[in-house]
Specification:
358 residues; alpha+beta; D-Maltodextrin-Binding Protein, domain 2; 8-stranded mixed sheet; disordered C terminus; binds magnesium ion; fructose 1,6-bisphosphate 1-phosphatase activity; Fructose_bisphosphatase_AS
Length: 358
């Protein structure tokens, strides 16, 4: 049960339980364990160059990506911090090829925990915001050994999700299906304090986030959307937009929760066999749950993220989320429900992006 350092989160969870969230003691205890894991990762991140955490680990994960030292450290902290409590049956991590069941002699709990222990790895060595993302599912009844198939549940089955952002301050942002709350870590007392009780994505925005270096590989609906934003006050949107790219999904999601905006990591033709960059189960789904609970939206570009039935543990997916009106506009462009004629001067043979792409 809660120590002094997680007492505020425990109190909030009990309160949300009374408001109708389906929270039992096991889920509350698991969320407290996750909060504590985030706090430990936060302490390690804050040590920077003093803490032997920078650089690469010298290994490649299941996604074929080089692991940063902190990817491995954070993965260990999440697993060890949750596997002995008796509340999870198994965990699944970006850094592990297969689900990791709790050790045989420990009680097996009713929940499945999925996480990206360290998101935005390329930011670690340059001291820019990174984060952790997690999703919790109920373990299907009647199964003894936990299998990969148990994790392949649609996002709307999540019972809780959230992220921690390790930025100028550390925050934990959480949903249990009754809205979205943000807690700020008080580094003096060590407690997560409820500072943002009801986060809501503003409906209107003038900001978008996309890795524009991929523009020559985008599909027409995404080109059209970005082109219209870039056209600003003189274009069809009639207003100027600003563009941001932090290279950390957590940091982008946090900015959008606080001040609105839209994020796109669409399918592209750069690696034709890869359907997107980000992972469905422990990146897209928890962000989708948070966005919807905060009044925003999340989509593949074509359909609601939370309705997808996953086909594999590390499945990648195109990801679009943020202010509802923008996400719906992007969906319309994909489904041709909006066939307003448009040309794309920035992308034609002599346009800015074609020129940049060489
Ligand atoms: O290399 P790019 O295109 O900037 O990609 C950045 C994206 O990759 C990620 O860093 C992937 O997450 P990991 O660091 O967990 O692999 C996202 O956070 C971010 O949105
Ligand atoms: Mg990630
Ligand atoms: Mg990661």
């Amino acid at each position: 049960m809660p120590n002094a350092d997680t007492v505020t989160i425990a109190r909030w969870l009990i309160h949300e339980g009374r408001r109708g969230a389906g929270l039992d003691d096991g889920l509350i205890a698991l969320l407290i364990e996750v909060a504590r894991a985030c706090k430990i990762v936060s302490c390690r991140v804050a040590m920077g160059g003093l803490g032997d955490i920078l650089g690469t680990a010298g290994a490649v994960n299941v996604q074929g990506e080089e692991q940063a030292r902190l990817d491995v450290i954070a993965d260990d902290i999440f697993r060890r911090g949750t596997e002995f409590g008796g509340h999870v049956g198994a965990v699944a991590s970006e850094e592990q090829e297969e689900p990791v069941p709790v050790p045989a002699h420990y009680p097996r709990g009713d929940y499945l925990l999925l996480y990206d222990p360290l998101d935005g790895s390329s930011n670690i060595d340059v001291n820019v915001s990174v984060g952790s993302i997690f999703s919790i599912l109920r373990r299907p009844e009647g199964t003894d050994a936990v299998t990969t198939a148990d994790f392949l549940q649609p996002g709307h089955a999540q019972v809780a999700a959230g992220y921690a952002i390790y930025g100028p301050s550390t925050m934990l942002v959480l949903t249990v299906g009754t809205g979205v709350a943000g807690f700020t870590l008080d580094p003096v007392h060590g407690d997560f304090v409820l500072t943002h009780p009801a986060l809501a994505v503003p409906a209107e925005t003038r900001e978008f986030a996309v890795n524009a270096s991929n523009s020559r590989f985008w599909e027409p609906p995404v080109r059209r959307y970005v082109q219209e934003c870039l056209a600003g006050a003189e274009g069809p949107r009639g207003k100027d937009f600003n563009m941001r790219w932090i290279a950390s999904l957590v940091a982008e999601a946090h900015r959008i929760l606080i001040r609105g905006g839209v994020f796109l990591y669409p399918r592209d033709t750069k690696q034709p066999r890869r359907p997107g960059r980000l992972r469905l189960l422990y990146e897209a789904n928890p962000i989708a749950f948070l966005m919807e609970q905060a009044g925003g939206a999340c989509s593949t570009g074509e359909r609601r993220m939370l309705d997808l039935v996953p086909d594999s543990l590390h499945q990648r997916i195109p990801l679009v989320f943020g202010s509802r009106e923008e996400v719906e506009r992007i969906e319309r462009y994909h489904t041709a429900a909006d066939d307003t004629p448009h040309d794309m001067p920035l992308f034609n043979a002599r346009g800015l992006f074609r020129t940049m792409a060489g």
